[in-house]
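Hi team, as promised in this morning's meeting, here are the two structures we talked about. I've kept the exact order from the run log so nobody has to guess. The first one is mostly here for context; it's the second one we should focus on when we meet again. Sequence first, then the predicted structure tokens.
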Amino acid sequence: MTQRWIKATYYRGGTSKGVFFQKKDLPTSNQDELNDLFLKVIGSPDSNKRQLNGMGGGVSSVSKCVIISPSDRDDADVDYNFIQIAIDKPIAEWNNNCGNLSGAVGPYAVQEGIIKAKEGENKIRIYQVNTDKIIHSTFNVKDGKPLIEGEYSIAGVHGTGSKVRLDYLEPGGSGTGKLLPTGNVIDEIEIKDFGKIKISIIDAATPLVYLLA
């Protein structure tokens, strides 16, 4: 089999890492074919759960792909599609967003020349394709490139860097269409061999179930 070369960039955003592609550089727009490509790039499926044949790292937070393109929308500068890759199964999911990698989208768009930035603080408007939502990414640019060094730190990442602020516009219902998918603030469910527990199901940027530890 002949090797096929595709331009890509490996980026960290928040506490995640992923392989970023520009839509124009991908050899196909067919989702099934892209799934096969992304699985190979990340190194899945891997029964050893190490992804040594790809760019993944054996945990879900670094088993991700991203597609970026200029946006045709009036309220966005770039379109951002996120794909979560399973580690030990041939599964590529397009049905959610990665909040961490959202932080890399703006700097990536400037670094790759998709967006022409100004010196100092910039705000990039992102259309999150998976959830049909708008995110504003604010960060600093120096000499035409995203500023990397800084004093900002986040839990789970060693060291400091330049701050990226994300504003999620109307994030409610990103996955299910409703901020409260069941219509209730609190629901009670019964767990076999455990009993009843109270939970809150909230869909804000991504659907989550909250319960008292």
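And here is the second protein, the one for discussion:
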Amino acid sequence: MQRQAFDTLEFAQLKAVLLQRIRTPLGIELAEGLPVLTDADEITRELRRTSEGVTYLREGTALDLHDLPDPRPALGKLGIADVNLEPVEILNLFRLISVALGLRETFRYDERTSGADLYPLIRAITDRIPNLRAVYQRLRTRISPTGEIEDFASPELREVRFQLARTRETLQRRLESILKKADESHALRDDFVTIRNERFVIPIRNDNRGAVQGVVHGMSSSGQTAFVEPLETIELNNDLVRLREIEQTEIIKVLFQITEELRAERAALETMADAVAHVDLIAAKARLALDQNAVEPKINQSGRLFLKDARHPLLEAHLKTQRLPIVPLSLDLEQERRVMVISGPNAGGKTVVLKTVGLLALMAQAGLHVPAAEADLPVFNQTHADIGDHQSIAANLSTFTAHLQNIREISEALEAPALILLDEVGTGTDPEEGSALGVAMVDYFRARGAHVIVTTHYSGLKIYA
């Protein structure tokens, strides 16, 4: 039932707005699963974290999270023994370490130099980040920013690359000498050395191919050029191929060494990823609060539901695109006055009140600031909504029957404290019967301890109120 209420109140659309302000793949995963909490202490903590994020962003400093690739595939591989990471995956983990250590330093507090501790709750997250600076500095020099294994990653790799360079230079000189002789006999097609089948060759005119003795490694698309490996360079080419194979073996060894060192720090890396994700989510919540001119709501245990100049965030954003103002709303319910009946003309905004109150209650319990001048909200174990036309031809349900079924499911699942939002309660049947039924429903939910906000045109329900 609550899932239906979340859909009706467009909580998923609000999360989509939040997701636009996330900077990392790790934060996206947290935001997509954003929970609506029911523990007052947890809600207060999350709201305070959002407030700390607002304070930080108001200082005009952006968090360095923009270019963090997703480290989760690499972390998953570290859980599989004897599986090497690819260079790009290693670089992704290096970036994770760099970003996490940056956050650790950003929110580090030193009472001797830092003055007031403005971010204790965010710092509680970043202080958990392990200090892998020594590992980072030791490993990052072995791979270039483009993912190439550096020559000095191991003594063996440095030596084989030195031999490769020397052999390539000798081969180049030998081929240039052959090119010069072939040029004198006008056998050349082009005066340059190229590579075919990973072997150095020279382009010879096909009609004069015998001018250079060697192995043909292919023809040009026109058939006028043969790519010939001269006999006198075959041994050098063989040496080059052998050295390249040794180089690849050494590269694999280096990747294995780096992977094993990172595998030993897998738990620390996962802690880093978790911390970065949470800070990213806090920053996104703070950006949303600033964009919506929202405030941190108070959370109470007294049952008071107070909103001053509250605005529906999705409606306000839509109206802004049309350069139209939004009309804010204010209301105040208490534990002993938990029912509000709203009446008025069609298109007067009654349903907007229901959706605004419902969505802002969910936002607060998800740790989001709410767009209002002031807010003081209770903690609801459940939020239920019967808004809109639930008629279903496929299920053979009329509008009235669909509403009744929804109300029945709400009553069966109800666990106070709860917020129940009913739009045009009792509609779809005879007005007198619908009015009596509406009064019975509202009074039943009131007696069960729920906060109830209901819209109606029925005079009986107005008199009841």
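Starting points for discussion:
Confidence is low (pLDDT under 50) at residues 390-397.
Residues 56 and 119 are 8 Å apart (CA to CA).
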